[in-house]
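Database export, one record per block. Field names are fixed; values are copied verbatim from the stored entry.
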Amino acid sequence: MSDKSATNAANLVAKVSSNISGPCVECQLNLDGIDNWMGSVNHYLAAHNFELLHVGQETSRDDDGGLWQSTVAILGRKP
C-alpha cells in the first residue's frame, strides 16, 4: 500500500449485516440489521458522517450446514 492510499484509508470501520444486530461503533445504539438493514446503514451515514465503502453479499453456513446469504455494508470514517 502506498503512503498516499494509507493516508486516505478510513481508520474507523463498521460492518452492517442483514444477518446480525448489534451496537453502533460510535454511540452504542442497538442497530437491527436483520429487520432494518437500511435504517442501520443510514444511521452511520446521517448520524456519524460515515462513508459507504462497499455493499455486497456474504455467504456463511447455518447450523445444519446449509448456505446462508446476507447483505453487508462496509462503512468508514476518518476521526
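Remark 1: The beta strands are 12-17, 21-23, 30-32, 51-61, 67-77.
Remark 2: Residues 63 and 69 are 13 Å apart (CA to CA).
End of record.
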